[in-house]
Structure formats: structure tokens, C-alpha cells
Design goal:
Strand content: 5-15%
CATH architecture of the domain at 22-77: Orthogonal Bundle
Distance between the termini: 56 Å
Largest sheet: 2 strands, antiparallel
Strand order of the largest sheet: 1-2
Radius of gyration: 18 Å
CATH class of the domain at 22-77: Mainly Alpha
């Protein structure tokens, strides 16, 4: 738990990440994500990490939402690419 001096509240450092409310160890979650990133399928990932296919599917869904939120936050603040209109 982390304490914020400004708002005076406690919160988990995992909030907003794939690890939020994870029942698996951090190593297994990272391993699942790495296998998926390398192109392993759901079944192969489950077999290699020794978890069920449903668990792999849940982390796929969870990581998609985390990545979408991250993308939307950062795209909102990035400057627009202005093309030079003179030829």
C-alpha cells in the first residue's frame, strides 16, 4: 500500500495495472504476458506457465483494457502532427 500525502489516502501500487487484484504471483503474470507478446497462443501459454486456458484468457482481456486506458491517456496529451502545407 502507498500513502499519498496530498489526498491523504492509501492505495495499492498495482491499481490500474494487470496485476491489480491478481491471485497469481507476479512472476506468473509477467510470464503469461511475455509468452503472449512473443506470439504464443492461449493453450501453449497455459501449458508453458502451468495455468488454465481460462486464466490466460482473463489476463488477455485485462491487459487489453490496461493498454487501451494507457493509450487513451497518452494520446490525449500528445501534440498533433502538423504537416507542412507549403509545397
Amino acid at each position: 500500500m502507498i500513502y499519498c500525502k496530498e489526498c491523504k489516502t492509501h492505495f495499492s501500487e498495482r491499481k490500474g495495472t494487470v496485476l491489480e487484484q491478481a491471485r497469481l504471483s507476479e512472476d506468473k503474470v509477467v510470464s503469461i504476458i511475455e509468452h503472449l507478446r512473443e506470439g504464443c497462443g492461449t493453450r501453449a501459454t497455459g501449458r508453458l506457465v502451468n495455468v488454465s486456458n481460462g486464466t490466460v484468457s482473463r489476463y488477455i482481456k485485462k491487459s487489453r483494457h490496461v493498454a487501451e486506458n494507457f493509450h487513451n491517456e497518452h494520446v490525449a496529451f500528445s501534440p498533433r502532427n502538423q504537416r507542412n502545407t507549403t509545397r
